[in-house]
Design brief:
The chain has 282 residues and is α/β, with parallel strands linked by helices. It is 40% helix and 16% strand.
Length: 282
Amino acid sequence: MEPLSFSLRVLRLLLLIAGGTGLLALAGCAFYRTSLFPAERATLAEADRQACARGLQLWPVAGPDYRALVTAHPPAMARGVVVVFHGNAGTAAHRIYYPEALEPLGWRVVLAEYPGYGARAGRPDEHTLISDGAETARQAVQAFGGPLILWGESLGAAVAAGVAAQPDVPAAGLVLLTPWCDLPALAAHLYPFLPVRLFVRDRFDNAAALNAFHGPVAILMAERDEIIPAAHTQRLFEHARPPKRLWVFPAAGHNSWPSSPGLRWWEEVMAFVAPPHAEADH
């Protein structure tokens, strides 16, 4: 009887451990998704008010099927279109600094909104954000002409890289601001106390995505980024194929990079990813 009793005790212990591990994994998964997608929600009326307060409007329709925000008074003769994918916090309406900086340079700016953010229906995940972003990019080119430049910030850099890798998206250039190399490695760095590699389902492998893109890639690094360490951004730059160029913002953090319009780096980046010979598809 003793061997049977011992076996039952071991079995109960194993089941308890398995159950605890499962609960930990479930809790960790929920924590991870909340951290990665802290979606800020709004009613359609609220989203419209937030946009109007910043001189923006819902696009392509002023209704629940909107995909992005655009300025109410764009450049008269645009050189092309820049589709911007924002970071994981806030909404597209909070990224007014992109049109403020890029439209004076002659570029039409489309601030893409994610499913599950603002007043858009849906639930964000890797597949949804990339497939939806690809459709937004295609519609932007149809509406405003090319060349098409994809720009992503933080999480948005992963979305932009994934969209650029789609064969039916005619991206001429790609700008990645404070990007990571691959999400599981970053998550393991940020949460060393959790077995995050077990439950990170969104891979967002930027290095792999860049292998499928053949245009110029500009990578912008914050030297003292406390969220995405500079080493992760540097590793992505090393993986990227030419033509590529790295800009480093000295002493800048993840949310303190120099975003003021008129700074020279904006023009430098756009000149690199969209040289003059590319500005002819209108």
